[in-house]
Specification:
It contains eleven helices and 14 strands. The chain is an alpha/beta fold and about 325 residues long. One of its GO terms (molecular function) is DNA binding.
Length: about 325
């Protein structure tokens, strides 16, 4: 027997109305990311499909594959990429795609007859080439492959970072540190630099205020943020910057914990401004100021680019860069 909304609601412990609105990607619904993900997970496990009752008229759907560079378990720890994927799935559903998910960019699991691919994350030239052999309807999200000839959907890191630096500058704070990350593509072929750090260095250098000793590099996890802030406190002592720009919310949460453990008050002594603005930013105390990235719109835009290629036969690549919004909260007030 096919799973129902009632089955999912009972398993998750929410109302049927909540399940229905989540599965229909109702963005006006106020529900936590964890609950939202549990609903999708249970729906997947129960093999729920709201289209099963409409199976009387067979429809040949085009196949859209989402290739994630994260594993499924790691994605659940990084709501940034989860939100992008949800945006893709929502828009893909609206355009009647048959959507499949490939985690940890295991392209060996891709169907040879896939019509289009949206690749989310960072990819090496060889990984890009492997996907391009399957389809020319290929869009990258959060990875600039425009010069390689592929559609790319990105966030304007440069402007957003400039706005953060200007925000502190307006508060009279010119000693600003940064905690950022570095990663490798999953085939270990390419090191991926943090574009936020590149933009931060440029913004501070322009103001003749960049100080290399105030920059600490980790790996984007909360544990790394904690360790990097501990290192900053130990090595800089009384010269600890009055503000830090931190590359993502998990690292910022870890940094906040390290400051609190050292009895350094936030924001009175040190202010923190994070990036991505996932729900984690408001789960900690004090709540984190963070740059809000239009993650779901990034995913939806990637689908729109696929649709445009399919409908028009466009072969010229497009590069779409979305803006971001500064959300000032208690960690900088």
């Amino acid at each position: 027997m096919a799973a129902t909304l009632k089955d999912i609601a009972k398993a998750v412990g929410v109302s049927m109305a909540t399940v229905s609105r989540v599965l229909n990607y109702d963005q006006s619904l106020s529900v936590g990311d964890e609950t939202r993900q549990r609903i999708f997970t249970v729906a997947d496990n129960l093999q729920y499909s709201k289209n099963k009752r409409r199976a009387n008229v067979p429809v040949a759907k085009q196949k859209l594959a989402i290739v994630q560079w994260y594993s499924e378990s790691k994605e659940q720890d990084d709501l940034y990429y989860m939100s992008i994927r949800m945006g893709i799935e929502r828009q893909g559903q609206a355009h009647q795609f048959e959507v499949t998910r490939i985690f940890q960019n295991d392209t060996g699991k891709l169907d040879a007859d896939v019509d289009a691919i949206i690749a989310v994350g960072k990819f090496s030239p060889q990984q890009v080439e492997n996907m391009a052999t399957l389809t020319d309807k290929l869009v990258f999200v959060d990875d600039d492959q425009f010069e390689a000839g592929f559609d790319s959907v990105l966030t304007d890191f440069k402007l957003a970072t400039e706005q953060v630096v200007a925000y502190f500058w307006q508060q009279g704070i010119q000693d600003i540190g940064m905690i950022h990350g570095v990663e490798m593509t999953t085939d270990q072929a390419v090191e991926v630099p943090d574009q936020r750090f590149i933009s931060f260095k440029a913004a501070m250098t322009k103001r003749h205020a960049f100080e290399p000793s105030h920059v600490f590099q980790g790996d984007y996890t909360s544990q790394s943020g904690f360790k990097m802030m501990q290192q900053a406190i130990k090595t800089l002592g009384s010269d600890l910057p009055r503000a830090f720009f931190i590359a993502n919310d998990p690292m910022a949460a870890g940094a906040l914990k390290a400051l609190q453990a050292a009895n350094i008050k936030v924001p009175e002594q040190v202010k923190l401004f994070s990036f991505n603005d996932t729900s984690l930013a408001t789960f900690v105390y004090p709540e984190l100021s963070s740059v809000r990235v239009a993650t779901e719109l990034m995913g939806a835009t990637a689908v729109d680019l696929i649709v445009n290629r399919l409908k028009t036969g466009r072969t010229v690549p497009q590069r779409v860069e979305l803006g971001a919004q500064l959300m000032a909260r208690d960690s900088t007030k």
